[in-house]
Amino acid sequence: MNGKLFPGLPVDPLFFERQARQRGFHLIAGIDEAGRGPLAGPVVSAAVVLPETFSLPGLTDSKQLSEKERERLFPLIRAEALAVGIGWASAAEIDQLNILQATLSSMVRALQRLRCDVDYLLVDGISKVPLPISQATLKQGDSRSLSISAASVVAKVVRDRWMRLYDRQYPEYGFARHKGYGSAAHLQAIAHFGPSPLHRKTFRGVREHLPHD
């Protein structure tokens, strides 16, 4: 898998974790988020610290897994990980800060909720977490690092569960089906009912339907 996506890179899914340990780091957290693109709901981040010999067949980028597969892997990750932290930023915070800064804030909160002091971070994407911790950013890291893959699954499962709960509160929008993403049915619901308190008012598809003073 990794070799096909990134020719010349080793297929070892713990390569970056081993590389960090060879440099003298001990507790390495993989970090990823879920929910940067939706029109509603929070952005959720997870930080996961795996043991050195961790192995979980089938674990990869959450976007490549079905909901059933993610739900199967979620408790296995929680049981085997040395530590798991979850952080989030609300729709109101996303509107206030912008989605990038809100995502980074959710990552900081995820790290703060770990029950250990990590000394190295592997972060999915290109933006470093604003903390004084040694770290590396990895493009498509959720399919290159097992720690980030684990974090991507945890973040996605947690966020999807929240959106199913929000669906009970605001059933007219269909959050359980689309999880807040901009499906045709969701856009039609926003146009018909107007935005809910969960909607990101600065996002296209929502802001056009805000009431005018």
Question: How do the strands and helices of this protein lay out in sequence?
Answer:
Elements lengths: L1 H4 L9 H8 L5 E7 L8 E7 L17 H14 L2 E7 L1 H7 L1 H14 L7 E5 L10 E4 L7 H24 L5 H4 L5 H10 L20
Parallel strand pairs: 1-4, 4-5
Antiparallel strand pairs: 1-2, 2-3
Helix pairs in contact: 3-6, 4-5
Description of the structure:
By secondary structure, the chain is of the alpha/beta class. It has one domain: 2-Layer Sandwich (Nucleotidyltransferase, domain 5). 40% of the residues lie in helices and 14% in strands. The protein has 8 helices and 5 strands, in the order H-H-E-E-H-E-H-H-E-E-H-H-H. A 5-stranded mixed beta sheet has the order 3-2-1-4-5. Strand 1 (28-34) and strand 2 form a beta hairpin. It is elongated, with a radius of gyration of 18 Å. The N and C termini lie far apart (53 Å). 43% of the residues are buried.
Helix count equals: 8
The helix content, as a percent range, equals 25-40%
Unreliable stretches = 1-10
Q: What is the CATH level 1 assignment? A: Alpha Beta
Strand count = 5
In short:
With 213 residues, this protein is of the alpha/beta class. It has helices at residues 2-5, 15-22, 67-80, 91-97, 99-112, 146-169, 175-178, 184-193; strands spanning 28-34, 43-49, 83-89, 120-124, 135-138. It has eight helices and five strands.
